[in-house]
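=== RUN LOG ===
request id: a7f3
mode: sequence -> structure
chains: 1
length: 506
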Amino acid sequence: MKRYLIAHDLGTTGDKATLFDIDGTLIKSVTYGYDTHFFNSVWAEQDPNNWWEAVCKNNHFLLEGINKKEVAAMAFSGQMMGCVVVNKNGIPLRPAIIWADQRSQKQEQEIRNKIEESEFYRITGHKISSAYSIEKLMWIRDNEYSVYQRTYKMLQPKDYIIYRLTGEFLTDYSDASGTNCLDLEKGKWSDKILEITDIPLEKMATIYPSTHVAGEITQSVAKECGLAAGTAIVVGGGDGVCAAVGAGSVRNGDAFNYLGSSSWVALTSDAPIFDPQMRTYNWAHLVQGKYSPNGTMQAAGNSYQFIRKNLCQDLEVMAKEKAISPYELMNQEVESSSIGANGLIYLPYILGERSPRWNAKARGAFIGLKMEHTRADMIRAAVEGILMNLCIILDVFRKDINIRSLNIIGGLAKGAVIRQMLADIYGVEAKKLNFVDEATSMGAAVAAGVGVGVLESFEAIDRFIKIESISMPDWENHKKYQNVKQLFDESYLALLEIYERLDSFC
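=== RESULT ===
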């Protein structure tokens, strides 16, 4: 009997792999880490071979003691907006340029010179930005022409792994909607955008639904990847949209907040939501015919990780001695500070910013530091800054949809104090799900099950998830946070000229 589903979430820091049965029970979960090379201020690259190594290692772990022939299918979630250029044999021609990389600002401007951004936004559902794939491919063309000439296809991270498993060059609609050149509502590569960017259609992968069976594990890689030859490979989708499924957002109006390295607020709808100020954008959903309006910030968990590495080395030692996460100790310090972090503001723009600012030149900052401020104040200010930024995104969607509750997933969601701060700042019920780390790969697992017919529809996610706790908003705290939120917003605006000058300085 085919009763298992395997899913891989190829994230920024590693591959989170999960083994579920078709009843929604998590059998095993494992993460295999890999490195990201950050350099030149806004450059970020990874080695695609590290993704393959992670997938293979994780498969072998998941299938210890499991009959491989009982695996119905494997599917993928992957970091989006990347640029993996491969030759006709599927061999990467250079390191992958990942989502966090914003080197292609010149190429972004080239597009702006040729089309009104409002028209571009209506075609793609996204702003013109150096964060996206097509701008990155243009950068390779303009700066590494010999690589560009040998490029057969531009792929996303999960698509590269699918090629290694099946020999097929393809992508899905959700990942295609993260390239900046998909005609979102027509569901095809935009002729106009490709003409503007001077990228030939032949370099783009063929697009399929997320539930499409890409092929079967070939005999030549079966042993290496740990699966039985002939196992079905389902395409899956981009991580932001797989997270939507894993968070239970498969019906109109269902909203969620993912709190990970990057973080986003998103929902499910029958049509794109176009913000007049273009602060948010739209993915194609894994559920055919639906969309996932979304606003993603660059450095949520990344900011918390930055604070941990640079201010909390002693907590890391203490956490190791106690066999707990250092973030638990950081969260305890958050509670020892107060709303507004005693007058300290943190701007979480250490990797530039996507939504809601769309400013690659933005920088992180602590504003208002005084001698009496403590580390606890700095940690709390960081959490408040992350949540203030996300609340601005949520406010965009509130103009179209009444959002009273959010399902919360992602690593930062583990902290009860963070969930309560979120509820107070947003003014919503914050519902923590049972799987905060596995939700994204779980969304891919459901796609796998639907793809091979062992699950009837994406609504089968209801038997995978449950609500573990609900944080209700404290309305008095909510009022206090409104003043902090105004200061947060005005602080960013006041520094716009400084960001420009810093960018030219270094």
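=== NOTES ===
The CA atoms of residues 39 and 45 lie 9 Å apart.
The radius of gyration is 22 Å.
=== END ===
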